[in-house]
């Protein structure tokens, strides 16, 4: 991916064929069971894979992490018929998936979502819209959280929609600061008819499914930040060695040496925190959700700081699009916002501390 990262960003190319090559290596359903085409690997394996891929293109890897989360949700909460209908073509990335939770009026307050699904016979009729959907309009399968019952989290169910269903449409492609190798659009439901057989789990189970998916999603997006920070440290290291000012390489300046040492130390600390949380999630530990929130908060904040410092070390060159460091800065800025903002991560951690 690395040789094409800048081109995909500039031309806003969704690199479908490259991702299908990744799927041939098993990266389309990394932690999905092998009987439906998944790789059956652990959450720790997944974190290491996404960190490595992200050094090549953070934006594309971040989309792949969302796709993997969707396939895992179908594999884990779907019945046998649903698993066999959806998972094989998603694991091979013949088809791509999008996760639809956020709405124009419900971001951090996800449990207040308004998209409604009225049951009529053996179908649901959906009305409403979703905002900021990664892959929206270009992907084939949409894992949608919608309201089938009363207010609050217990009224939410999870439906799987397919592109082409009557009443399913998309907004304009958003112009974004980063993440330009994946399209982002609103997803709109206007009397969209969905078979009851496309519901994952029971009615009212949707919010629980969404939150369990996001625990893994937070590890995945933190792992993408690690990869961007790792690549940025290497770019800074190279620039300090090559660039000369005041008659000597920047690498001779002790202040810059110390900053580089701090960047590497913060990266290793963040990496250990993410991998610890990945293990906890894999083992089903009681504290897994709060460790995932801590890891997402710490790693995405620290890694953005590392990338930003690497840009500063490049001076004016760091602000040119010819230099990759600026793209890492742009691509990981949003990691502090999505999969639950870092303010919500603090809320989850604080709530856990004060309730225990």
Structural Rg: 21 Å
Mean pLDDT: 98
Give me the count of strands: 10
Structural class: alpha+beta
Shape by Cα distribution = globular
Number of helix segments? 10
Order of helices and strands: HHHHHEEEEEEEEHEEHHHH
Widest sheet, order of strands: 1-4-5-8
Strand content: 15-25%
Low-pLDDT residue intervals, each spanning 5 or more residues: none
Give the N-to-C terminal Cα separation. 45 Å
Main sheet overview: 4 strands, mixed
Tell me the helix content: 40-55%
Written description of the protein model:
The chain has 356 residues and is α+β, with helices and mostly antiparallel strands. The chain is 49% helix and 16% strand. It contains ten helices and ten strands. The protein has helices at residues 5-11, 16-24, 43-54, 58-77, 80-91, 206-242, 254-282, 288-313, 325-333, 342-355; strands spanning 97-100, 116-120, 123-134, 141-147, 156-162, 168-170, 184-195, 199-200, 244-245, 248-249. The protein has a four-stranded mixed beta sheet. Helix 3 packs across helix 6 (206-242), helix 4 runs antiparallel to helix 6 (206-242) and helix 6 (206-242) packs antiparallel against helix 7 (254-282). The longest helix has 37 residues, at 206-242. It is globular and about 80 Å long. It starts with a helix and ends with a helix. The mean pLDDT is 98.
């Amino acid at each position: 991916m690395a040789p094409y990262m800048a081109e995909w960003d500039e031309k806003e190319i969704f690199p479908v064929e490259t991702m299908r090559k990744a799927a041939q290596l098993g990266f389309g359903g990394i932690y999905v069971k092998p009987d439906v085409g998944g790789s059956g690997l652990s959450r720790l394996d997944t974190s290491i894979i996404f960190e490595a891929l992200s050094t090549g293109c953070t934006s594309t890897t971040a989309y792949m992490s969302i796709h993997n989360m969707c396939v895992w949700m179908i594999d884990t909460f779907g019945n046998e018929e649903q698993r066999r209908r959806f998972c094989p073509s998603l694991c091979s990335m013949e088809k791509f998936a999008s996760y639809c939770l956020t709405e124009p009026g419900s971001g951090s307050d996800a449990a207040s979502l308004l998209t409604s699904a009225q049951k009529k016979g053996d179908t649901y009729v959906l009305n409403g819209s979703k905002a900021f959907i990664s892959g929206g309009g270009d992907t084939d399968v949409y894992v949608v959280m919608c309201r089938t019952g009363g207010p609050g989290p217990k009224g939410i169910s999870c439906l799987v929609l397919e592109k082409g269903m009557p009443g399913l449409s998309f907004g304009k492609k958003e112009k974004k600061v980063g993440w330009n190798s994946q399209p982002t659009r609103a997803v709109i439901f206007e009397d969209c008819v969905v078979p009851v057989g496309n519901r994952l789990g029971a009615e009212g189970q949707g919010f629980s499914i969404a939150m369990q998916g996001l625990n893994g999603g937070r590890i995945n997006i933190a792992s993408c930040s690690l990869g961007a920070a790792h690549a940025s440290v290497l770019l800074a290291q190279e620039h300090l060695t090559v660039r000369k000012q005041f008659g000597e390489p920047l690498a001779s300046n002790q202040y810059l040496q110390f900053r580089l040492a701090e960047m590497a130390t913060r990266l290793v600390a963040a990496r250990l925190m993410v991998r610890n949380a990945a293990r906890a999630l894999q083992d089903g530990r009681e504290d897994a959700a709060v460790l995932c929130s801590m890891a997402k908060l710490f790693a995405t904040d620290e890694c953005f700081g590392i990338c930003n410092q690497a840009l500063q070390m490049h001076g004016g060159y760091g602000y040119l699009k010819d230099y990759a460091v600026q793209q890492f800065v742009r691509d990981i800025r949003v990691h502090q916002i999505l999969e639950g903002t870092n303010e919500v991560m603090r809320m989850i951690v604080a709530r856990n501390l004060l309730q225990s």
